[in-house]
Amino acid sequence: MAKHIVARAGEISPGESRLVKVQGRTIGIFNVAGQYYAIKNSCIHEGAPVCLGTITGTFIPSAPGEFHYGNEGEILRCPWHGWEFFIASGGSVFNPQVKLKTYPVTIQGDQVMVEV
Predict the structure, then answer these.
(1) Which of 6, 29, 82, 88 lies 20 to 30 Å from 13, alpha-carbon distance?
(2) pLDDT tens digits, 1-19
(3) Angle at CA 22, nearest 5°, toward 18 and 28?
(4) CA triplet 47, 107, 29: central angle to 5 degrees?
């Protein structure tokens, strides 16, 4: 696997993302509270361009009759059918065993690099 420069640190602000092409793959680069993550732009459900979905939060476990919202800015919601995934792990909110393809991200100097 080789490392590819996909952005400069600071070009993608916290809460934002960018699509890049690396070795013929479209990959979403996400900045979550200063941490960078890379996700293949293909939903495991039906192949939707998942990285074009909304960056949001989700309802978190709560007591019966209570509804608490959390994980703001940490969830990627697929634009086709609303499936939700944790950006940091690619794991599905409803079943963490179900995962989007992710790639390792490193910062070297001011360069954001993805290993593909």
Answers:
(1) 82
(2) 899 999 999 999 999 999 9
(3) 25
(4) 20
Sign of the Cα pseudo-torsion (99, 103, 107, 113, in order): negative
Average pLDDT over residues 26-55: 97
What's the pTM value of the predicted model, to 2 decimals? 0.93
Instruction: Decide: helix, strand or coil at residue 45.
Output: coil
- For 46, half-sphere exposure in the C-beta direction (CA atoms, 13 angstrom radius) is 6
Average pLDDT over residues 50-58: 97
Q: Using CB atoms within 10 A of its CB, is residue 94 exposed (0-12), middle (13-18) or buried (19+)?
A: exposed
